[in-house]
Amino acid sequence: MGQVLHGCATTTEAVRRAIQHSQESLRALAKRYGINQKTVAKWKNRTSCADLPTGPKDVKSTVLSQEEAIIVAFRRHTLLPRDDCL
Fold first, then answer.
1. What is the rounded average pLDDT of the residues 23-35?
2. CA 70 to chain centre
3. Averaged over 42-55, what is the pLDDT?
4. What burial letters (b/e) apply to 65-79, b meaning 16+ CB within 10 Å?
5. Which residue of 18, 20, 54, 75 has the smallest Cβ count within 10 Å?
6. What are phi and psi of 32, to 5 degrees?
7. DSSP character for 3?
8. 3-class secondary structure, 71
9. Is 1 exposed, middle or buried (0-12, 13-18, 19+ CB in 10 A)?
10. What is this structure's pTM?
11. Greatest CA span in the chain, whole angstroms?
12. Residue 84 pLDDT grade (very low, low, confident, very high; cuts 50, 70, 90)
């Protein structure tokens, strides 16, 4: 099973593990892996090689209230833009 990386990930778990176990300087590691020194410092200080989750911390409801459902149905039926419905 392959690992899942988010779209902006610049390192893999193997690279992160190598960074954490290396005794080289931040500059040397950044040059070797082609990443920023701040990224190297971040992974040096973390205890895990797993990437932290991204996105909002609070999950928002995707269920429409009764009032919102009525408005959506009205707009679909009349094909009016939102400004005209107000």
1. 94
2. 34
3. 84
4. eeeeeeeeeeeeeee
5. 54
6. -65, -45
7. P
8. helix
9. exposed
10. 0.57
11. 68
12. confident
Query: Which residue has tokens 């939102």?
Result: 82
Pair of tokens at residue 45: 């200080």
3-state helix, strand, coil in the chain (%, to 5): 50, 0, 50
- Distance between CA atoms of residues 27 and 37, nearest Å: 6
CB atoms within 10 A of CB 35: 17
Are the CB atoms for 72 and 86 separated by under 8 Å?
no
DSSP 34: T
Q: Cα separation of 33 and 24, whole Å?
A: 12
Token pair of 64, please? 């429409």
